């Protein structure tokens, strides 16, 4: 999708704060973080949401999210991690390219996710 911002970020056409990358995914820091270290797992191919992404890519997204969650736990010493993924505007999705949020949580961080 030529006008999709996450396609451009995932494929390196737009610079981003990348914290992890593999063949199928780029993981960047969210530019409006809910907490310190809030990251997004973005597939390099365009899928709008959960209903479009093939099961094998979905499994890869969760595996990548697990790697990144462990990385953030080690580096930031967070007390917990949320994996969150919105589908459709009614559910809070604002970027219509599938992405999995990895949100480090800290005791009393005041977030309600
Ligand atoms: P959604 O609401 O679609 O589940 O999540 C979109 C997320 O992407 C939001 O948390 C928002 O802050 C983040 N975001 C939107 N545009 C950009 C961008 O250009 N760069 C980065 N790093 N994050 C973005
Ligand atoms: Zn896209």
UniProtKB/TrEMBL annotation:
User: Which stretches make up the HIT domain?
Assistant: 5-112
Motif (Histidine triad motif) spans which residues? 97-101
Residues annotated as signal peptide: none
Q: Name one GO biological process term.
A: nucleotide metabolic process
Quote one Gene Ontology molecular function term. catalytic activity
Q: Identify which residues the record assigns to the active site.
A: 99 (tele-amp-histidine intermediate)
Q: Record's superkingdom? A: Bacteria
Question: What name does the UniProt record give this protein?
Answer: Histidine triad (HIT) family protein
